[in-house]
Amino acid sequence: TDAEVSTRKKTFAEIQTERLDQAERTVLIKCPSKLNEKKLLQYLSSHGNVKSHFFFENRGINALIEFSEKSSIASLQDAVGIPGASEHHVVPFKSRLFTFTLKNPVSQRVEEAPLHLSPQCHIPVKDLIEKLCLADSISSQMYILLNEYQLTEENIKLRFLACSLVRDFACAYFPDSTVKPFGSSVNTFGKLGSDVDMFLDFGDTGKHATKMKKGPFEMEYQMKRLPSGRLATQRILSVIGDCLDNFGPGCVNVQKILHARCPLVKFSHQPTGFQCDLSVSNSIAIRSSELLYIYGCLDSRVRALVFTIRCWARVHGLTNSAPGTWITNFSLTMMVMFFLQRRSPPIIPTLDQLKELADEKDKHIIGGYDCSFVSDLRKIKPTKNTETVDVLLGEFFEYFGNFDFRRNSINLRKGKEVNKPESSPLYIWNPFEQDLNISKNVNQPQLEKFIALARESAWILQKEDKTQQMINKEPWGLAALLIPFGKSNSSKMKNRMKGIGSETIRSLLDSLKLNNENSQQKAVGK
Q1: Is the Disulfide bond keyword given for this protein (predicted)?
Q2: Burial of 482 (0-12, 13-18, 19+ CB in 10 A)
Q3: Prediction pTM value
Q4: For 117-138, what is the HEC assignment?
Q5: In this structure, are strands 274-280 and 365-366 parallel, antiparallel, or unpaired?
Q6: CATH number of 1-103+151-203+228-283
Q7: Distances from the Cα of 274 to the Cαs of 141, 237, 252, 253, 287, in angstroms?
Q8: pLDDT grade for 510, boundaries at 50, 70 and 90
């Protein structure tokens, strides 16, 4: 649609700014169960124009209300009372989270039109498989999966609201600070139900440089000095974490993880239903989010392929929400990007090509690393590649099923297979911090499991007889790939694994059997 094209062409920064502004004008209301939508909106309109709203289920009915003007919130807050302290005593922090109950519920029991509720999580894998079997081609199956799993407009608004509510606390200490989402919430590859990664940003230090030139004095704030930036980060997060824990309505299970490589505070935000990770501004992580945003916007096949591969990996236990020796979603996404750079002609440009298109305002040097690339999508030439997304899926499995992981590494800057700088089983160059391997955690058995599953999947797609399978009511196409390849296939697997180190085959097949039992559970639970 035209509307979508116009939103698609905005830069990452423009969208972030727009969404953060929208979130500032938004409140969240816990509604009574017998709710007349018209009455609610009528009442809220007395405080100002309601620009948009939606309802969702989370321990009852909730409404997200976006006003046109920020001042409407102050007007509404003036009318809202503090809970009576009969059995509970309250922390009198006034937020933008309200509970509405009906004053005289009996008189209003007219037949209500049922509310439309926006789903905030995706359907279970078994339901997805049923839907996929009704499609008419593998390509449409992939786009169905994308539509079921991707973040909705409503869910994105809720994510930015969660950040905005945390910002209200940070601003008590640092009035200029903002809290912004990064990673999957904003890079176009987020899945419904995923965590919200957010970071605390203290504004650009460069902003005031021009003002400082005027006048006869060098002027600066007196600030507390600490021996390291890390210590400052730990102290700030520690205090904000305590604040959320002690005063934050609906913030539960607050954990401060201050000694991690990247210090963070984890918490559950009950009003929005999100699990949140709060850290302090990490410019390189933002650049990665924007890079993926650009790739995701360039061609619709990019997201369809990434969502499909990630769902496939999760079903087969290749990825896992717990940290460990598994391949991460980020690594998998980078592997898909690399594969798309390697097509002929390429479907997406290399990072070096994006860097060549960068102008002055796109220049970013962070901690000595050059993180520059073009931000204006219109400057990037569309690809001439016309391969369909189902062909790409088969080719992806083929490509990595036969990739020389022993010798080669994956480099998105160059879009080339380059010799491995060190002996990690899987080496994917960090696109910005060029001396880091983003898949350093992956061990040999996990990599070999990936290779075996990729070969098996390529084989299933090739030998497929769709008509026969549809007659037999068997899952076909993508649906067949999302069913764990368990005991029935293990003998076939052995044949196709010739040439893979035999010492890991036994553990591999065992883990496949194990996964067969629990991965469908896990996939449904995720």
Answers
A1: no
A2: buried
A3: 0.90
A4: ECCCCCCCHHHHHHHHHCCCCH
A5: unpaired
A6: 3.30.460.10
A7: 28, 19, 11, 12, 24
A8: low
**Amino acid at residue number 38:** K
Q: What gap in Å lies between CA 525 and CA 125, rounded to an integer? A: 9
Residue 392 contacts residue 301 (beta carbons within 8 Å): yes
The percentage of residues in the chain with a pLDDT greater than 90, rounded to a whole number, is 76
**Chain segment 210-229, per-residue pLDDT in tens:** 666 778 998 888 999 999 99
First to last CA, the chain: 31
Alpha carbon distance 409, 442 (integer Å): 13
CA angle 441, 444, 450 (to 5 degrees): 90
* CB neighbours of residue 64 within 10 Å: 20
How does strand 196-201 pair with strand 274-280? parallel
Calpha distance 71→52 (Å, rounded): 16
DSSP class per residue in 451-505: HHHHHHHHHHHHS--HHHHHHTT---THHHHTS---GGGHHHHHHHTTTS-HHHH
The verdict on whether omega for the bond into residue 345 sits within 30 degrees of 0, i.e. cis, is yes
Position 108 pLDDT exceeds 80: no
Give the span between the Cα atoms of 196 and 214, in whole angstroms: 42
* 391 backbone dihedrals φ, ψ, rounded to 5°: -65, -45
pLDDT one-digit tens code per residue, 364-397: 999 899 999 999 999 999 999 999 999 999 999 9
The 3-state secondary structure of 271-339 reads CCCEEEEEEECCHHHHHHHHHHHHHHHHCHHHHHHHHHHHHHHHHCCCCCCCCCCCCCHHHHHHHHHHH
Task: Quote the CA–CA distance of 473 and 466 in Å, as a whole number.
Answer: 10
Phi-psi region of 116 (alpha: psi -120 to 50; beta: other; left: phi over 0): beta
Q: What are phi and psi of 485, to 5 degrees?
A: -80, 95
Q: Where are the domains of the chain?
A: 1-103+151-203+228-283, 126-135+299-348+383-462
Question: Which H/E stretch holds residue 256?
Answer: strand 251-257
Q: At what angle do helices 138-149 and 389-401 cross, to 10 degrees?
A: 90
Cα 340 to chain centroid distance, Å, stands at 20
CATH assignment of 126-135+299-348+383-462, given 1.20.210.10, 3.40.1190.20, 1.10.1410.10, 1.10.10.10?
Answer: 1.10.1410.10
Q: Are 383 and 346 in contact (CB under 8 A)?
A: yes
Tell me how crowded residue 423 is: count the other CB atoms within 10 A of its CB.
Answer: 7
State the pLDDT confidence band at 512, using cuts at 50, 70 and 90: low
- Closest by CA to 158, choosing from 201, 194, 125, is 194
Strand 26-30 and strand 61-67: the pairing is: antiparallel
